[in-house]
Specification:
Elements (H helix, E strand, L loop, with lengths): L2 H19 L15 H22 L6 H32 L10 E2 L4 H22 L6 H33 L3 E2 L16 H8 L2
Parallel strand pairs: 1-2
Helix pairs in contact: 1-2, 1-4, 2-3, 2-4, 3-4, 4-5
């Protein structure tokens, strides 16, 4: 089984498991073995799925401002966890390919394997929710048809992205692409880098 076939299967299992309770506060119950790639992928998509629904909630026009602020901070924390896990996945790939010597003419890709996997995880969520809309009986036929057309595009994108990821991994393994990883340097959560936070600290 290709890597992306495994990833897509795991992502959809995570999405289905989340929607059993459909609760952003539900605790993850990861069914995969410790240290397995499937366990990491499941955890990654669970974060994405919870955040997807947090983003829905915060867009409620009638939401209490205090609740919205708390949700925004929860989303920020979720984004940090998401980034950390993407970097962890890249570390997994680095270990997998540590004995590969890139060819002298090896190219460098614009994104690492894990950030491409991140896009695949989000795409799984788009496909799941667009499929719900395309089949929602309470919606108009026009709405369902429009959503089906969008779903068709998303499924084509899934095939293209999956092919690209599998090709990238093969190119790294064959030495045709050099894998380089740069840690994400997010600044907004860092009290020493976000001017709003460090200026506030200086005023105390």
């Amino acid at each position: 089984m290709k890597f992306t076939e495994t990833a897509w299967k795991v992502f959809n299992q995570s999405i289905e498991d989340y929607h059993v309770s459909d609760d952003v506060n539900a605790l993850i119950n990861n069914p995969f073995e410790k240290d397995s790639l499937e366990r990491i992928l499941y955890a990654k998509n669970w974060i994405d799925t919870v955040q997807w629904h947090l983003e829905d909630i915060i867009r409620d026009e009638n939401i209490d401002p205090a609740e919205a602020l708390q949700l925004k901070r929860t989303i920020d924390a979720s984004n940090q966890k998401r980034t950390d896990l993407v970097e962890y996945i890249d570390s997994w790939f680095l270990n997998k390919f540590e004995n590969i010597t890139p060819k002298p003419e090896a190219k460098i890709n614009t994104e690492t394997p894990a950030w491409a996997v991140d896009r695949l995880s989000i795409l799984a969520l788009k496909v799941y929710h667009m499929s719900l809309e395309a089949n929602r009986e309470s919606a108009s036929e026009e709405h369902r048809n429009n959503c089906q057309a969008k779903l068709d595009v998303l499924l084509t994108q899934k095939e293209d992205l999956s092919t690209s990821i599998d090709q990238l991994l093969a190119d790294i393994e064959n030495g045709n692409v050099k894998m380089k990883v740069y840690k994400q340097m997010k600044m907004y959560n860092d009290e020493s880098l976000n001017p709003i936070l460090y200026q506030k600290g200086q005023q105390k």
